[in-house]
Every structure is written in structure tokens, then in C-alpha cells.
Amino acid sequence: MSFSARDLDYFLEVARHGQLARAATSLTVTAAALSKAIRRLEDEMGLGLFERSGHGMTLTPFGVAFRERAQRMKSEHDEALRHAGDVRAGRAGLIRVGATLAVLDAVLSPALAALQPRRPGMHVRLEVASSDELIDWTRQGLLDVAVIPTYESMPHGLVHEDLLTDALVAVARVGHPVFARRRLTMGDLSKFSWVLPSVHSAARAKLDEVFRSAGATPPQGAIEVHFNASWSLPVLAATDLMGIVPVSVLALPQARGVKVIPVDALSIPRRISLFSRPNTYRSPLLEEFVQALKALAPAQRSSAARKG
């Protein structure tokens, strides 16, 4: 059983929008063309893909299962075209990379800076988003690789390669009153105001877990952000707020005004890992980018050790 790539594209777009009119506008085609494509697929399989009503179109149980298969087929088709393009263009090509903001400064930026002079014709499409979003896009084949901090559990259905071991640490400005205390407890720290990751993030969940394990109330956020990285360092350096940041960003110039709070429990280990789909085609450019990431890992470990 074979399906045209165009029909699959049309089906996925209708499934995404739930309405022919919206999908037609998105694809700049007519609703009639979409309707015919859906009918061709349904006739080919002998099963309905959508429940149709005056409110729109809803996937049937079979349609939900077929959407997953259609996404895989579309990704494989797109990868085959990209592979052919790489062959025609020699070593040039496009790579689609995802990263959280937490690893952008310390990992992605140096790797791209090292690679670009060697590959001036490269085209990189960089998506910065949350870990959950990047994992989902990688599974769908919308990204070639994603560079993500991980803690304990690993996402299912993806291949991962550990690049380096990092840690989240608590910091405050140099001269903060907290450093004048001889003995610090987790209860003491929970009384201060913090710059914190979003309550929905894995980093926030780990931080709250550390405080609760010590019998202390998790800190409250004076500032809460979806992403937490180097941008918070100037804020922390100029105020009495505390924050939690990756060790890797402490090597940046912006970190000169902050200092690690000396509480062992607040050094939260994590891994920076590279995720991709199993058996995904790696173009020469993508493979070179991966090697650039791996080459930077020892330098990042050394820098983190000096700062710690």
C-alpha cells in the first residue's frame, strides 16, 4: 500500500487544524483538493479517517493511529529528499537543531562558532524551546537533533548520546548577606526571594524535591521564567535575589558578580544529552556538527571544574 506524499501532507494538515477551510488556507490550496485527498486515502484503506460534523473534522480511532504512521512516512520522505540534496550539493546542506535556552550559551553557541568557519555555506535552523517541546518535535522528525539537559529519566523512543555532565547550583551576588552566615540550612535559604524556573520545568521539580527532602519549604519565586540561563546573572548580581543556574554559565563574563552558595545539597547533577530518532540519516554536515559538540564537552567540563 503506497500513498502520495502530497496526500499525506494534506491529511496531516487537516488533522492539525480540525477543519478543511483552515487547513486549505494554511496550505494555500482549495478545500475541495483537501477533501479529495482525504477520500483517496480512505478509499485506499477502506476505513474512515475523520468523523465529520458541522463543527469540523475529528480523527477516528483509526485516524489517530494512521496520523502517527503518516508522520513517520513524511519524515522518511523528507529525509530521503534531503539526502539527495546533500549528494547533489556535495557537503552543503541544512541541519535542524533544537536546544533549550539553558544550553544555548554554553554548548550550542561555541559549537556553531567552531563549525561555521569550516563550513561557511552551512544552513542551520535553530529552534529554542522547552525540553518537552523539543523531544516531541524530534520524535516527529521536525528536528534532526536536540540538545537537552536531563536529570534521571530518559525520553522513550529516541537515541541519546551524553555530551557532558553539568550541574545546577544556587548563586547570589558577591557580598550577599547569606555569605556572612557561618552555617546555612535549607530552611534559611527558603526564606529568601529567588529567580526560579517555571513550575512546570524539570529543573524546578528537582529544586523543590531537594528542599522537601531536607524538611524545608521550597523557595518562592520573585521572578519565574519559562527558561532559566545566563540572562538572570545581571539581575542576581544587582539584587538580593537568589537563583539556580547551570555551572556551565558561570564561565561567562556576566557571572563575575555572582558566587555559588556553599550548600552541597544545592548542587543538582544533570547531563547534557544529544537526542535523535533511531536510524535517522545524518548528513556529512550534521555529523560534523555532532562532532563539534562532542569536542567542546571536555573544555566545558574543565571550565566548570575551575569555576567550582
UniProtKB/TrEMBL annotation:
GO CC field: cytosol
One of the Pfam families matching this protein, by short name: LysR_substrate
Superkingdom assignment: Bacteria
Domain HTH lysR-type residue range list: 1-60
The UniProt record lists the keyword DNA-binding: yes
InterPro entries: HTH-type_LysR_regulators, LysR_HTH_N, LysR_subst-bd, WH-like_DNA-bd_sf, WH_DNA-bd_sf
Keyword annotations from UniProtKB, A to Z: DNA-binding, Transcription, Transcription regulation
GO molecular function: DNA binding; DNA-binding transcription factor activity
Family per similarity comment: Belongs to the LysR transcriptional regulatory family.
Protein name listed in UniProt: LysR family transcriptional regulator
Species assigned in the record: Variovorax boronicumulans
